[in-house]
Design a protein that fits this description.
The complex is a heterodimer. Chain A is α+β, with helices and mostly antiparallel strands. Chain A has 10 helices and 6 strands; from the N terminus they run E-E-H-H-H-H-H-H-H-H-E-H-E-E-H-E. In chain A, 52% of the residues lie in helices and 13% in strands. A 3-stranded antiparallel sheet of chain A has the order 5-4-6. In chain A, helix 1 runs parallel beside helix 3, helix 4 runs antiparallel to helix 5 and helix 4 runs parallel beside helix 6. Chain A starts with a strand and ends with a strand. Chain B is mainly β. In chain B, strand 10 and strand 11 form a beta hairpin. The longest helix of chain B is centred in the middle third of the chain and has 4 residues. Chain B starts with 7 loop residues before the first strand and ends with a strand. The relative contact order of chain B is 0.29. Strand 3 of chain A pairs antiparallel with strand 8 of chain B.
Chain lengths: 243, 139
C-alpha cells in the first residue's frame, strides 16, 4: 500500500492510498487532459507528467479522486505537489515499461528513427532475454533492421544461453559468403533469349526452363511441377512466372 | 578510372516487365528462379509459391514478423538460407542470407526481390545498362 500526498495552499494534504498498477504514457496524458478539462490550475503539463511518473496509485481511482478534489475547490488556483514513494526498482520498471510502450508506438507508426532513439536510451544489459526478443521483434516491425541487428548483438553478449536470441542472431546476421568458386553457367543467357522471344505469348504462366528450352508451363507452379515429374525433377531448372 | 574487381556477371531484364525492373536469375536453397534487384528492400523476399518448394520449417524462422513494402505492411517469416547468384561469365557466388517469406494472401502475383541488407550487402555490385549486365563480386 502506498500513500500519496497532495497539498494545496489552504487545506490539509489529501491522502490517496492505493495499490500500484502500471501507469503508461497514454494514461498519464489522459489524466492530464482530464485535469485540464476540469479547469484546474495545473502545473505545466510537462511538469505534471514528470511528477506523475513517480506516482503509483491505480490511475482510475486516483485520477477520479483528484478530479473530485479539484471540483470541490472554490478557487481554481491550486498548487499541489506529489511525493514519490515508490521503491527505486519499481520506478525503474515503470520507466522501462513506458519506454517499451513508446517503442511499440514507434513500431506501429513505422518510425524507425524514433524507434532507434528510444532503444539507445534503454540499458538492455539489465533486461531479460524475452524483453529483448520482444523489442527486436518491434524493431523489425518498425523497419529498423540495423537497430534490430545491434540489439541482437547485445542480446547474445548478455544472454548467450538464450536459444531465442541465438536464433535471431543466426537469421539476422549479415550475409556470409559460402562459395566464390562456382563455375559460370550459360543457363541465364539462354533463358534470357527464350524470354525475349516468347514472353508475350506466355505472360502470366509459370514455366520451367532448362538452358533456354521450355519444359513445361501452367497456371500454377504446382501444375508445372506435376508436368515435369515433381519437385525433385525440377533440380537445376528455372522456375518462374512470366511477367 | 577506378579499378574494381567483379567475379561474375549475368544478364538482366528478361522478365520483360514494362517498369524496367532489373531481374536476374538466382538460386534459393536449391530452387532456381528469378528475382528483382532492389537495394531499397531489406532481405531477400521470396514469393510464396517458390518458398513452398524450399522445405522451410516455420519452427526455424523468426515469425511472424512484418515488413514495410510498396504493397504496405506485409506479414511473413524470416529464414536463413543459401542463395546463389549464377554468373553467365566468371564465377558464381553462394552466400548465406536472410530470406523473408510473405504470407501467400499478402503477396499475390508479386515477384521475388533481392534486397540489400541481409542479402546483397556483402556483394560488390554494378549494373551496366549498355549491355544489360549485372556484375557482382566479393570483397
Amino acid at each position: 500500500m502506498l500513500a500519496q500526498g497532495i497539498q494545496h495552499r489552504r487545506r490539509a494534504p489529501v491522502q490517496f492510498v492505493a495499490e500500484p498498477p502500471v501507469p503508461c504514457v497514454q494514461e498519464r496524458a489522459t489524466l492530464v487532459a482530464k485535469l485540464k478539462a476540469q479547469q484546474a490550475s495545473l502545473l505545466l503539463a510537462s511538469d505534471l507528467t514528470a511528477r506523475f511518473q513517480n506516482l503509483q496509485p491505480p490511475w482510475g481511482t486516483w485520477a477520479g479522486a483528484l478530479i473530485s478534489h479539484f471540483q470541490a475547490q472554490t478557487s481554481p488556483k491550486l498548487l499541489f505537489t506529489c511525493q514519490p514513494k515508490a521503491p527505486p526498482e519499481i520506478l525503474r520498471r515503470r520507466r522501462f515499461i513506458d519506454r517499451l510502450t513508446a517503442l511499440r508506438d514507434a513500431a506501429e507508426t513505422l518510425d524507425a528513427q524514433r524507434f532507434s532513439e528510444i532503444c539507445e536510451s534503454i540499458d538492455w544489459k539489465t533486461r531479460s532475454s524475452s524483453e529483448l526478443v520482444r523489442a527486436i521483434g518491434l524493431a523489425l516491425k518498425a523497419g529498423a533492421l540495423m537497430t534490430a541487428r545491434r540489439m541482437v548483438g547485445e542480446g547474445v553478449s548478455y544472454h548467450p544461453e538464450a536459444a531465442d536470441i541465438r536464433k535471431y542472431a543466426r537469421i539476422l546476421a549479415p550475409p556470409e559468403l559460402l562459395r566464390t568458386d562456382l563455375p559460370a553457367d550459360t543457363g541465364p543467357q539462354a533463358d534470357l533469349a527464350w524470354f525475349r522471344e516468347h514472353r508475350a505469348t506466355h505472360r502470366g504462366q509459370w514455366v520451367a526452363l532448362r538452358h533456354g528450352t521450355l519444359l513445361a508451363e501452367g497456371a500454377t507452379l504446382q501444375e508445372v511441377l506435376a508436368k515435369i515429374g515433381g519437385a525433385k525433377a525440377a533440380k537445376g531448372l528455372l522456375l518462374t512466372r512470366v511477367r | 578510372m577506378m579499378d574494381l574487381e567483379f567475379s561474375g556477371r549475368t544478364p538482366y531484364g528478361y522478365s520483360g516487365d514494362p517498369t524496367g525492373k532489373v531481374t536476374i536469375e538466382v538460386e534459393i536453397a536449391g530452387v532456381r528462379t528469378t528475382a528483382v534487384v532492389d537495394t531499397a528492400a531489406p532481405y531477400m523476399i521470396c514469393e510464396p509459391e517458390i518458398a513452398g518448394q524450399l522445405s522451410l520449417s516455420v519452427s526455424e524462422s523468426i515469425g511472424a514478423t512484418q515488413l514495410r513494402t510498396h504493397l504496405g505492411v506485409i506479414t511473413g517469416h524470416l529464414f536463413r538460407v543459401p542463395i546463389t547468384l549464377h554468373a553467365s561469365a566468371g564465377m558464381s557466388v553462394e552466400l548465406q542470407a536472410t530470406l523473408f517469406v510473405p504470407q501467400p494472401d499478402q503477396w499475390v502475383d508479386n515477384p521475388s526481390f533481392l534486397g540489400f541488407h541481409g542479402c546483397l550487402e556483402r556483394i560488390r555490385l554494378a549494373i551496366d545498362p549498355g549491355a544489360d549486365m549485372f556484375y557482382f563480386g566479393v570483397f
